[in-house]
Every structure is written in C-alpha cells, then in structure tokens.
Amino acid sequence: MTEPAPSPQIGRPLQIGPHTVEPPVVLAPMAGITNAPFRTLCREFSGGRGLFVSEMITTRALVERNEKTMQLVHFDASEKPRSIQLYGVDPVTVGKAVRMIADEDLADHIDLNFGCPVPKVTRKGGGSALPYKRPLLRAILHEAVGNAGGLPVTMKMRKGIDDDHLTYLDAGRIAVEEGITAIALHGRTAAQHYGGTADWEAIARLKEAVPEIPVLGNGDIWSADDAVRMMRRTGCDGVVVGRGCLGRPWLFADLVAALSGEGSQGYARPTLREVAEVMVRHARLLGEWLGDEERGVIDFRKHVAWYTKGFSVGSEMRRRLAVAGSLAELRGLLDELDLSQEWPQGADGPRGRTHSRNKVVLPDGWLADPYECGTALGADAEADTSGG
C-alpha cells in the first residue's frame, strides 16, 4: 500500500470531555500490568503527557466494594486525569458502578471494555462478545452515560467476534447515539486473539463512519514509528498502546517525541545498565504498592523477559532473574551482567501474547440473533473480582 501524505491530525491534542490529552496517546488497560506502579513509570517517561488507564475493573466487584478491586481503583495523587476501565454485562450494575465513581470522585474518566477476548469473559457474553447483541450494548452505554454525572465515558472494542460476525461499525453508531465521547478500536477480531496482523483499514473505516467523535487505533504499535504510520494511514485521532510497552515504559518518551515533531532523534535507546535501573525501580514500586517487598519482586517476575529481550543475557540468567525473591537478589543478579550493552537492534518487535484462537467461547446460542438477549445476562455473568 502506498503511504498517504502526512495527516494534519498527527500530534494534534485529543479531547476526552474536558480533558486534553497531548500528545494523543493512551496506555491500554492490561490485567496484572497497568497497575499504579507501571502507570507511574510510563507517566514519568512521558513527562506526564498522555492518558494512562487502570486495569480492567469488574462493575459487580466495584459495587460490592471487593477489597482487591478497591485497591485497583486507587490512584496516586500525581495521576491526572484518573482513568478507570470498567467491564460489565448488566446495564443496571454498570450504571451503579458508574454512579459510584462519579458520586465518590473515584476517577475523572471512565472507559468501557468491549474488547477482551479471553474465554472466561466471552463465555459469559462479555468483552468482545457483547457488541454482537446490539440492544444489550445500547442499554449498557445508555446506563453508563446517564449515570456518569458529566464524566466522559469512552469505549474500547474489537472488530467483532470473527470475520463472519463483525460488529464494530454498528457498535460505533450506537456509541455516538448514546453519548460516548470517544472510541478505541483494536484492529482484530476476538477469534484472532493477539495473533496475525491488526487490520488498520478497519480503523480507517470506523473513523469515516463516526466522524462526530474521536477514534483511537490499537494493534501492532511496537514503536513510535508504528504509531505515526497508523495515524497517517487511518486518519485516527490517537493511539492506544498495549503490548508494545511491555518491558518498554520508555516507549511513551518516544511517542511524545514522535508526535511532537522531534522525530527519532528524541527516541530513548537505553543501555542495559539503564534498563536494569528501571527494572529495580519497577520492582520496588510494586513492593511499596503491595506493602511487601517480596510480593512486589514476585509480581515483577513476569516482566523480566520483556525488559531483557534483545540483550545478551542468556536463558539461565533470565531464569534466575525470574525467580528472584528480593530487591537485593534482583539487583545482585543484574550486576552480574555486562551492563554496558547498547540498545540492541530489533528489540522493538512483538512481546506478550501473539497467538490466535480458532474458536471464540460464547454462551449457548449467542450467535442465533444479534437482537435477542433482553437487556441483561444472568447474575453470574460477572466475576466478583477484577483485573482479568
């Protein structure tokens, strides 16, 4: 495909209700990843610029004040605007959760999850399965916007369940009609999960279909250059970055540079020594957040492979780093490495989950009629815990 001429929208501030997001960059919610410590790192590298969304919060768990959930909705005083993503399948419960956020001043922005493809969510009709049921989607959006008390409400979704059951254009029009402030589209179906290639052309089609509100693109943004290419190709108003920042919180520094006109000369290219310092800080922040150093280091273990990708570390050392039980042990192991290593070429590629699924797990009869579902699913359709 011939690359279009640069769009005048590149780098233009994104307006989410009263909140100006400049540059137009959003950290995607990721379960077990985008907690307060990781958001702190990403925000520091961006110089406080951008929008950084919480982990996915289950509306039932929020309404019932589940202890883990209440910790997840706690924001550092420096986080502005505070952004919460909600997952729900029952319009009434979603409305109650949104009203609680507004009344108790828990956040400044609410995002609704209609993009999660994992079986434990889709088998209950939630996440990326839900937009297929148009009346249910409309009812949830109506309750959310109606109970937000003026807080901006946005939504994140996928193209649909699979190539035979695409929903994103219908969902986009419903969102506009119900007062949603902006839409983010991951250019994959639920069946693709995280495999294959994201369909950026679908993002362009959605932008054409809903010119009234901002459209953000998501999928296969592994570098700041990818973000620029997406915006030029699709005309989208901003980008949502998920797996691309795993082990790369400094990607937000690159995004600021790219979308502010500085270009690649402003990109972060840390040495392994600098990466090691970020790793230790990340683990320390997790320990402070969890109230226990050991728990923080254990929680950090899943990040080791992402941070060290591309560097000459070795599988045995990666294994040792991934079982460290204290900050001192983590620091000591890192000091055994050749920390003078420069940033490796090709280190910006795919990270995290990259597989597809042949079949999306759905409730029995889910695909029989997109307009049949009543206005709610059963009471057991929402888990009572968050973050998944």
From TrEMBL:
Catalyzes the synthesis of 5,6-dihydrouridine (D), a modified base found in the D-loop of most tRNAs, via the reduction of the C5-C6 double bond in target uridines. Belongs to the dus family. Keywords: Flavoprotein, FMN, NADP, Nucleotide-binding, Oxidoreductase, RNA-binding, tRNA processing, tRNA-binding. FMN binds at P29, M30, A31, Q85, K156, H186, G242, R243. Its EC number is 1.3.1.-. The active site is at C116 (proton donor). PANTHER family: TRNA-DIHYDROURIDINE(47) SYNTHASE [NAD(P)(+)]-LIKE. Its cofactor is FMN. InterPro entries: Aldolase_TIM (IPR013785), DUS-like_FMN-bd (IPR035587), DUS_fam (IPR001269), DusB-like (IPR004652), tRNA-dHydroUridine_Synthase_C (IPR024036), tRNA_hU_synthase_CS (IPR018517). It catalyses: a 5,6-dihydrouridine in tRNA + NADP(+) = a uridine in tRNA + NADPH + H(+); a 5,6-dihydrouridine in tRNA + NAD(+) = a uridine in tRNA + NADH + H(+). This is tRNA-dihydrouridine synthase. It is an enzyme of class 1 (oxidoreductase). It comes from Streptomyces albus. GO terms for molecular function: flavin adenine dinucleotide binding; tRNA binding; tRNA dihydrouridine synthase activity.
